[in-house]
Amino acid sequence: MSDRMIEDEKFERKLKPLGFTIKEIKPDGHCLYRAVEDQLSLQSGGSSPYAYQELREMAAAYMRKHTSDFLLFFLSENAIDRDSDDSPAERFENYCKEVESTAAWGGQLELGALTHCLRKHIMIYSGSFPDVEMGKEYKSDGGSSSSTGTIRLSYHKHAFGLGEHYDSVFPDLNIQV
After folding, report:
1. Which residue in 24, 25, 103, 144 has a CA-CA distance of 20 to 30 Å to 31?
2. What is the pLDDT of residues 96-120, one digit of tens each?
3. Is the pLDDT confidence value at 142 over 80?
4. Residue 85: active-site member
């Protein structure tokens, strides 16, 4: 059985009892932002207030404005280029430019920025790693209504040959919970 099949089975075992299923998002480098856009559409009952490109720009702008909150994590995730004369601040600025203007893959830094930009609780389910919860301060109180304010994503390590991928997680209408 392939790694992808094993991961998919783990997702099903995890999400089905919660009444959720995975909606596949195009694997084009924008998957994190497209998955967030899909979740915002689901919450608004129609179209998202932000397109994926706007979400990229928002994340980059937030990271720039709050550099001290992100720089250490950026530097620990991005090995120093020995041939570069750029300062850490210059490298971080170049990274932010990539976030807003290319199809560079998004990850934990961008999710951290988006949770604050959108003032949303974000839950990232994984079949290969522990689930990650971000923006707990934005989590709604109360019964089932709390699910409407939460952005739910799935993180796939083995989905495609290129590696990591995000999809959107939404209520499975075929399951009675």
Report:
1. 144
2. 999 999 999 999 999 999 999 999 9
3. no
4. no
HEC profile for 12-52? HHHHHHHCEEEECCCCCCCHHHHHHHHHHHHHHCCCCCCCH
Catalytic residue among 38, 121, 165, 167: 165
Q: Are 51 and 125 in contact (CB under 8 A)?
A: no
Tell if the pTM clears 0.70, that is, is over it: yes
Strand (E) or helix (H) holding 128 = none
Q: Is 31 a catalytic residue?
A: yes
Number of domains in the chain: 1
Out of 28, 66, 86, 131, which one is annotated catalytic?
28
Answer yes or no: is 177 within a domain: no
State pLDDT tens for residues 67-76: 999 988 887 7
CATH, residue 122: 3.90.70.80
User: Does 100 map to a domain?
Assistant: yes
Among 31, 117, 121, 167, the active-site one is: 31
> What is the extent of the structural domain holding 29?
3-171
